[in-house]
Structures are given as C-alpha cells and as structure tokens.
Amino acid sequence: MTALLTSEVSSAVRRNATVYGLYLVGLLLVVCAVGYSLDALHTWLAIEYGRIAASLWIAGGLLATALVAFAVGAYVKSRRRPSRRLEAAMAAAPVAATLVGSGKIGWKAGIVGGVVLLGLLLGRQLAQGREGEEEK
User: Fold this and answer.
1) Is residue 69 within 8 Å of residue 77, measured between CB atoms?
2) Model-level pTM greater than 0.90?
3) How many helices (H) and strands (E) does the chain have?
4) Which of 4, 35, 54, 81 is the most buried (most CB within 10 A)?
5) At CA 92, angle to CA 7 and CA 11, rounded to 5?
6) Which residues of 40-62 are buried (b: 16+ CB within 10 A; e: fewer)?
C-alpha cells in the first residue's frame, strides 16, 4: 500500500514539475520576445525620429505600463476580501455528518455540535472585528 501511495505521489510531483518547468520556459521566451520587439521598435523609432527621441518614447511607454500595473495592483488590494465562512462550513459538514451518523458516538455528537457552533460564532465575531478595523 505504501509503495502504491509513494508511486502515485512521485508521479504527480514529476508531472507537476514538468508542467511548471514548461511554463517557466514559455515565460522566459515571452520575456525575450517582448525585449526583442522593443529593440525593433527602438530601431524603427531611431530611424524616424532620432536615437534620443526613440529612447525617450520607449522609456515613456515602459513607465506608463508600470504605472498602469501599479494602479491595478492598488485597486485589487483595496477591494474587500470575500467571506470564507460558507466554504469553511461546507468543508466541515461532511465530517460532522459522519460523526453524527455513525451512532457510535452518542453524547459525543452533542459536544462536537456545540464545539462547531461555538467555533462558527467565534469566527463570525473575529471576522466582524477585523472588517471593522480595516475600514478605519
């Protein structure tokens, strides 16, 4: 059983490493292509407007692109994060159903239910406290 599990895990890791390696090679090629196209644009602008003007156009375009990226990043950061309470409750539901449905637990099911309810209430209070602090 352990050998099968080890084989499956190593196969998944090897496949993921191959996929991410190919993504990295693709990203490197995209960066090279963008650099090469900027060089070609610089050459064309140098022929049309002169070397100094061409360099200023390329620098201005890169600066404008960077400012747009920073603005989008600031917008995404300022957006309110979605609540994860529903996902946590959905993840805990099968475990709770298994514990309650087994019949072997009896009085322990009440304790587990109480603990889950207490956890949900505390989590809700903590989340509301954090949301109030972020708005200030």
Assistant:
1) no
2) no
3) 4, 0
4) 54
5) 10
6) eeeeebbeeeeeeebeebbeeee
